[in-house]
Amino acid sequence: MSNRNIQIKDRVIIVELMNEGHSTASIKQIMFDRHDVDVSKRGIQKIVHKYKSEGIYGDRKRIGRPLKLSKRSQSFIRRLCLKNRRMSLTNLSRTYNMGSDLHVSRCTVNRILNKYGLRSHPAVCKPLVNDKQRKRRLQWARSRQQWDINKWSHVVFSDESMFRTHNHCHSQRIRRFQNERFSPICTKKIIQHGAQVHVWGCFSRFGVGILKRIQGKLNSEAYQTKILNDMNLVGHCIVFPLRTFIMQHDNAPCHRSASTVSYLTEQHIEVLDWPANSPDANPIENLWHFIKMKLNDLGPMNSDKMWKEIQNIWYNIPSALCRRLVDSMPRRVSSIIKMKGYPTKY
């Protein structure tokens, strides 16, 4: 039993028994047998020490303003938040005040939610996955649950990505004084119509493959003639040194068109079945993010210079990073199953 639940009369008895020379163990047994009070030895020591040091049996009078809301009211605010995680503090406080005689402020609601661990965080951006796609992702993950690292080593991962100068969505924090909000050294520079480079690349557990620049729209014909035309070179000589490999690409229209499927079949290239809206399952996304972070540190540049910098970064990606990314595939598959097909942390 907690000391807070022990009544004052029982505390007085404990102190008197201690003054009579009883041990802590005997006091514990006497309180349980005679007074039906279950108190721990440590609890008895705290009660006696408080009496000897402060001369009181109970708790000291608490200072400060008493709580405005009961635990039940606080729990109600918590349930309101859990029903709608996107509801603002203003709407939460307004909803509570509509059905209560007490008026609570946004600060009070925020303090209560923080106490329960419901702190405000920026929402992570993830692709929208409908029920059909979620079930397909779950089915795909379960069918590859037994694939080990050796099996994933046969896969060549590929994808397209767009690189832009000074991406608007890239968040940036800076420390400044109150009157320096619009100072040039404290503002983020944005180029309204900056340079952009569209690329295609592939990699495997053995390292990165060929990186190609895409000029204009990438349709089925361009995908076959400008990228897949030397896939054997990409797969056999650079990315995967063994005899056979499995190619991975997503469900973009140019990838799953009938002409592209026929072309890959004629070239005897095995293609990995891939669920829609699943960038979290493709480790090449981590390489694109790696390049974008490097480009952000280089400052403004035109498209030709950006293309040279992208190539420089791409071909200097360490093979150890590629190995770690491919080795994460079993964990990615397990995460999809754990999340029941919804987007994962990857």
Largest sheet, described in full? 5 strands, mixed
The low-pLDDT segments are none
Radius of gyration, Cα only, in angstroms?
A: 32 Å
Q: Any idea how many domains?
A: 3
CATH architecture name of the largest domain = 2-Layer Sandwich
CATH class of the largest domain: Alpha Beta
Task: Determine the fraction of residues in helical runs and give it as a percent range.
Answer: 40-55%
Please describe what this structure looks like.
By secondary structure, this protein is of the alpha/beta class. It folds into 3 domains: 3-54; 71-115; 131-168 and 192-338, Ribonuclease H-like superfamily/Ribonuclease H (Nucleotidyltransferase, domain 5). The chain is 47% helix and 9% strand. It is built from 16 helices and 5 strands. A 5-stranded mixed β-sheet has the order 3-2-1-4-5. Helix 4 crosses helix 5 (89-98). The two termini are 46 Å apart. The model has no long low-confidence stretch (mean pLDDT 85).
